[in-house]
Each structure stands twice: as C-alpha cells, then as structure tokens.
Amino acid sequence: MTSHDSDRIDTLLQHIGQAPLDPVTGTGPVALPSYRTSTVRFASMDVLDQAQAAKQRGERVPTYGRVGLQTHEAMETLLCRLEGGERAFLAPSGMAAISMALMALLGQGDHALVVDSVYGPVRYFHKTILSRMGVAMDFVRGDLAGLQAALRPETRVLYLESPGSLLMEMLDMPALSRWAHEHGLTVVADNTWGSGAIYRPLELGADVSVIAATKYIGGHSDLMLGAAVARDPALVGKLHETHYALGNTVSADDAWLALRGARTLGVRLRACAENALEVCRWLDAQPQVSRIFFPAWPGDAGHALWQRDATGSNGLLSVAVDFDTARVRRLIDSLRLFGIGYSWGGYESLVTQVEPSALASHGYWASIADARMKAGTVLRLHIGLEDPADLIADLAQAFEAARGCDDPY
Ligand SMILES: *Cc1c(COP(=O)(O)O)cnc(C)c1O
Q1: At which of 262, 295, 312 does a domain end?
Q2: Is residue 1 assigned to a domain?
Q3: Structural domain range at position 45
Q4: What catalytic activity does the UniProt entry give for this protein (predicted)?
Q5: Where are the alpha helices (DSSP H) in 207-353?
Q6: CA–CA separation, 229 vs 224, rounded Å?
Q7: Displacement of CA 142 from its chain's centroid (Å)
Q8: How far is Cα 240 from Cα 236, in angstroms, rounded to an integer?
Q9: How far apart are CA 157 and CA 162, in angstroms?
Q10: pTM (2 decimals)?
C-alpha cells in the first residue's frame, strides 16, 4: 500500500509516515527511522537555492536541522491529519506549544480572553512573560455572557480548553468560536484531551489547536512534546515566524517516539475510556461520592455537548468525595495500582488531589458546587489500561481505608 487516502483515524494512524522503499532493492522497514541531525547537506548550490526559495514561500523545506527532517515531518503530517490542519509546528513540550501560539498572536497593548478552566500554567505564562510584554489577559467563565462582559476593543484572542482538564467542563466550542469571530478574535484551543482523535477543535470553529503530545499521543509516559496546528495561511505564517524565532526544536528521537505512540492512539483511547466508564459505575454506587466529572458519563453536566461534539472519550475523570483532607490523603496513600502523579494519557493509572486553589478560580465549580461538595475533596484519576476489576478492587480497599481512619495523621 502506497497511499493512505482514508480519513478514518484508525487507518491513517497506521499509514502516515511509513518508511519509503529503497528504489534499488525495493525493500524497506515499516517504521520510519529517527533522522537525527543538526545540519542539512545539499547536492549542489542550485539545490540549495531551490530549497531557500521554497522556504521563502513558506513551504516545509529544511535547510538546517532545527525544524527536523523526515521523522519530524511525518509527525507533523500525522498531527495535521488528526486535527484537520494545514501545518503543525512542534515544540519541546505542550507548554512550549501554548506559549509559542500565544506569542505568535499577541503583542504589546493586546488583550486576550482566557476561559478560566484552562490548563493552570497558562496563568503563570501571563504573569511571568506576557504581562511584561504588555499583553493583558482576563480569565473568565466559558459562556457567552462571561466573555461578552470582558470583551475589550483591544481583545485579539479567545483561548480555551474543552473539556477543561480538572473538572472536565465541556464548552460549546462552535457557539463560542462564532461569537469570537464576530468580534474579530482568533480562537486558540488546547486539545490535549481530544488529541485530534476524539475531539477536533478546528472543525468545531477554533483557529489554532495546541496539543501536549506528552499525554495520549506519546501515550507511554516517556516523552515531552507539544504542537500547534492551524489551517488558515495567515495564521500558519505567524506560527511559522514565531516557531523559527523562538528556536523551538524537538529531538528526532522524541518525534519518533511520538509517532510510535500515535499508532495505538485509537485503541488506547477506547480501552481507557471503557475502563473509566466501569470505574464511574463503581464510583457512582459509593455513598461518599457526591459527583463524577466525566463527559461520557450520563450524569455529567457536559454530557449532551460531549455527545454532539466528541467522537469518543478517554481515561481522565475527576470525582468529588465526602472525605476531609486527612481521609483523602489516606485514600490516596492506600492505592496500590494508581501512581500519585500529575500527568495523564499514559498506559498507567494515576491519581492526584485537585488543588482547592485551582477549584476556587473555576467559575464552573462555583456554579455547581453545593455545600456537600465544598466540604469534601476532588480527586483526579487517570484510568489506564490495567484490568478495570483490579482498579476497582484497589479503589474499594482505599475507600475502605479512608472510611476507617479516625485520627489518621
Ligand atoms: C500536560 C498539559 C499541558 C502541558 O504539556 P507539557 O508537555 O507537560 O508541557 C497542556 N495542556 C494540558 C491540558 C495538559 O494536560
């Protein structure tokens, strides 16, 4: 098979970026090698001139190793097909992709509206860097009323994440994007949750999709990688300039690992999602569980939007439990199969406590949290590929330990 014209994600994930066949022997490996280089060699000055001219036209022609050769290109192509973009720009982490996209679109005197449920370090990027560059940001609820109230004449960007990765708040991306475009804003969406496979912001109205490939695309908790993907030529041009000027570069080995991880993105997402639903069913039956945050769960406030806009789910969920801090610490420490850790999207299960300060800054939390939820704790679980019966048994013994601790610490 030489072409891959299917748009079905599971098919294209297997066929993008295969190694070419050797024209002499007619043979080749399946997997593209990791092309490591700092320097690109040219056959002649004419070839070099042609490459430079193509680069000036904005084509992806490497004249130096910083942008990467075939391995990087294959990863970029795969991200474009997943996200429905024209160009993808790789960055050394998801956070680097976010800061690259914001720097590409914002300058002195500009203002950005940021939905308050986005990945927390976006606030830090504003506080430490963007504010020094004279960029203002407001963090607001992700609904039309909240956005409209904070709109300024100098607002240029709407930045959002759907679902938000702490409380899984689904946003009405098409409606918010329409509103943003009516006001001349560029919409940037963090699509780490969907990773192009189960949620596609560019098709739902966003202009730039940023992804931490560190999570589900890498999928094995062994690499850091980010990307910004866009379709519109003017936006592609801005990202291209900023990517180049910042000197963002990614190791060919990391691009290779991400490509390898992506081959199984579809099956991993489905397996994690199925396991997570089983865990939700168990959690729902626990008297100490007051709320489950998981868009694929029928009780989630965003379930209808998820049904309309997403084509699948994953293993990330949060749960509000009626345990005080001491009991929740006992619960977490009692878990044996869940690692205590911040990330998600790997093959393994993880648990963290959602910081109360993070909840306090989410308008969504303020709108739904009743007294019972406020008195308890929110845990975030990443449900991995373990047998769900074992995960449930692990949770059951940890809940039991938490219930039984009277004077724990
Ligand atoms: C992890 C994460 C990021 C940042 O990715 P890194 O590769 O860790 O820098 C950005 N957005 C979301 C939603 C994330 O979960």
Answers
A1: 262
A2: no
A3: 9-262
A4: L,L-cystathionine + H2O = L-homocysteine + pyruvate + NH4(+); an S-substituted L-cysteine + H2O = a thiol + pyruvate + NH4(+)
A5: 233-246, 252-262, 265-284, 303-309, 325-334
A6: 17
A7: 18
A8: 6
A9: 16
A10: 0.96
Q: What is the pLDDT of residues 228-277, one digit of tens each?
A: 999 999 999 999 999 999 999 999 999 999 999 999 999 999 999 999 99
Ligand 1 in reach of 350 Cβ (< 6 A): no
The atom number, within ligand 1, closest to the CA of 224 reads 7
- Say which CATH number the domain at 354 has: 3.90.1150.10
Q: Is 119 in the same domain as 55?
A: yes
Does the C-beta of 297 come closer than 6 Å to ligand 1?
no
Ligand 1 atom closest to 95 (CA): 9
pLDDT in tens, 345-371: 999 999 999 999 999 999 999 999 999
Lookup: tokens for 138: 């407001």
Statement to judge: residues 72 and 149 lie in one domain: yes
User: Is any atom of ligand 1 closer than 6 Å to the C-beta of 211?
Assistant: no
Is the C-beta atom of 218 inside 6 A of ligand 1? Answer: no
Residue in 215, 220, 350 to alter for ligand 1 test, most ligand atoms within 8 A of Cβ: 215
Task: Report helix, strand or coil for 143.
Answer: coil
Instruction: Name the closest-CA residue to atom 5, ligand 1.
Output: 94
What residues act catalytically?
A: 66, 119, 190, 215
Ligand 1 contacts CB of residue 384 (under 6 A): no
The DSSP secondary-structure symbol of 67 reads G
Residues 295 and 223 in one domain: no
Percent of residues in the chain assigned helix, strand, coil, to nearest 5:
40, 15, 45
CATH number of the CATH domain containing 233: 3.40.640.10
Strands 186-190, 208-212: pairing is parallel
